[in-house]
From TrEMBL:
<dbReference type="InterPro" id="IPR001845">
    <property type="entry name" value="HTH_ArsR_DNA-bd_dom"/>
</dbReference>
<feature type="domain" description="HTH arsR-type">
    <location>
        <begin position="75"/>
        <end position="169"/>
    </location>
</feature>
<keyword id="KW-0238">DNA-binding</keyword>
<dbReference type="Pfam" id="PF01022">
    <property type="entry name" value="HTH_5"/>
</dbReference>
<dbReference type="InterPro" id="IPR051011">
    <property type="entry name" value="Metal_resp_trans_reg"/>
</dbReference>
<dbReference type="InterPro" id="IPR036388">
    <property type="entry name" value="WH-like_DNA-bd_sf"/>
</dbReference>
<dbReference type="InterPro" id="IPR036390">
    <property type="entry name" value="WH_DNA-bd_sf"/>
</dbReference>
<keyword id="KW-0804">Transcription</keyword>
<protein>
    <submittedName>
        <fullName>ArsR/SmtB family transcription factor</fullName>
    </submittedName>
</protein>
<dbReference type="InterPro" id="IPR011991">
    <property type="entry name" value="ArsR-like_HTH"/>
</dbReference>
<keyword id="KW-0805">Transcription regulation</keyword>
Length: 179
C-alpha cells in the first residue's frame, strides 16, 4: 500500500521538500494529500481530481474512487515482480515448447530436448529456471529425472495463452515479416 499523509491547509510541515507549485497548493487553503510518486512525492488536492508529481509532471484522475479501489487491490511489489518473472520465463520460445510438451505429462530431460528442439544442456538450464520459479517440479527415479508442470495453475495459464493466440491474430510491428 502506498504511504500517504494528509496535510491540513496552511501547513508547512513538508516545506523543505516542496517546489514552488506545491508551496502554492499548501498556501492556497486547500487540503492536500502527499504520497510517494515515481520520482518523489506527489500532491493530491482534495478540491481537484489531479495528482501532481513534485518534479512537475501531472496525471489526471477521472474516477478517483475507482482508482482507489484498484490501487488497494493491487498485489504487493514483490508479488508483481514474481508474476512478471513467470511471464518472462514464458516469453522464451524454447522454454515455452518445454512447458507445452509437459502438458502431455511428465518427461525426462532427453525426451524434452528432442520435443523442444533444444540441446540437453539448454533444456536442463531451462528446467532449472522453471523449477526455481515453481513452474515445474521433478521426480527422481534412480539416475533419471522426470519433470512435470508444478500445479493446475501453470496448466491453466498455458492453456489460456495457447487458446488466446489461436483465436486472435496478433500484430507484431517488431517483426520484419509484417512489412
Amino acid at each position: 500500500m502506498v504511504a500517504q499523509r494528509d496535510v491540513p491547509a496552511g501547513s508547512t510541515a513538508l516545506a523543505p521538500m516542496l517546489g514552488h507549485g506545491e508551496h502554492d497548493a499548501l498556501r492556497s487553503g486547500r487540503d492536500v494529500r502527499w504520497s510517494p510518486g515515481t520520482y518523489g512525492w506527489c500532491v493530491k488536492s482534495s478540491s481537484t481530481d489531479q495528482v501532481t508529481d513534485i518534479e512537475g509532471c501531472s496525471t489526471r484522475v477521472v474516477d478517483a474512487e475507482r482508482v482507489s479501489v484498484v490501487r488497494s487491490r493491487m498485489p504487493a511489489d514483490d508479488d508483481l515482480a514474481d508474476t512478471a518473472d513467470v511471464f518472462g520465463l514464458l516469453s522464451d520460445p524454447g522454454r515455452l515448447r518445454v512447458l507445452l510438451a509437459l502438458l502431455e505429462g511428465e518427461l525426462c530431460v532427453c525426451d524434452l530436448a528432442v520435443v523442444s528442439g533444444l540441446s540437453e544442456s539448454a533444456t536442463s538450464h531451462a528446467l532449472r529456471l522453471l523449477r526455481a520459479h515453481r513452474v515445474v517440479s521433478v521426480r527422481r527415479a534412480g539416475r533419471m529425472a522426470y519433470y512435470r508442470l508444478d500445479d493446475a495453475h501453470v496448466r491453466m495459464l498455458l492453456d489460456l495463452a495457447v487458446a488466446h493466440t489461436e483465436h486472435t491474430q496478433a500484430i507484431h510491428p517488431e517483426r520484419d515479416d509484417n512489412v
